[in-house]
Amino acid sequence: MKISHLLLLFTFFCSSATFAQQKKKVPAADQKMNAFISNLLSKMTLDEKIGQLNLLTGGEATTGSVVSTDVESKIKNGQVGGMFSFTTPQKIRKAQEIAVNESRLKIPIIFGQDVIHGYKTTFPIPLALSCTWDMSLIQKTARIAAVEATADGLNWTFSPMVDISRDPRWGRISEGSGEDTYLGSQIAKAMIKGYQGDDLSKYNTMMACVKHFALYGAAEAGRDYNTTDMSLDRMYNEYLPPYKAAVDAGAGSVMTSFNDINGVPATANKWLMTDLLRKQWGFKGFVVTDYTAINELIDHGLGDLQAVSALSLNAGVDMDMVGEGFLTTLKKSVQQGKVKTQQIDNACRLVLEAKYKLGLFEDPYRYCNEERAKSEILKPEHLQFAREAATQSFVLLKNDKQTLPLKKTGTVALIGPLANTGPNMPGTWSVNSDLGNTASLLEGMKATLGSDVKILHSLGSNLLANEEYQKRATMFGRDIPRDNRPEQQVIKEAVDVAKQADVVIAALGESSEMSGESSSRTDLKIPAVQKRLLQALLKTGKPVVLVLFSGRPLVLNWENENVPAILNVWFGGTEAAKAITDVVFGDVNPSGKLTATFPQNVGQIPLYYSHKNTGRPLEDGKWFSKFRSNYIDVSNEPLYPFGYGLSYTTFDYSDVKLDKNKFKAGEVINASVIVKNTGTREGKEVVQLYIRDLVGSSTRPVKELKHFEKINLKPGESKTVNFKITVDDLKFYNSNLKYVAEPGDFKVFIGTNSRDVKTNQFTLL
Question: Which stretch is the leader sequence (predicted)?
Answer without folding.
Answer: 1-20
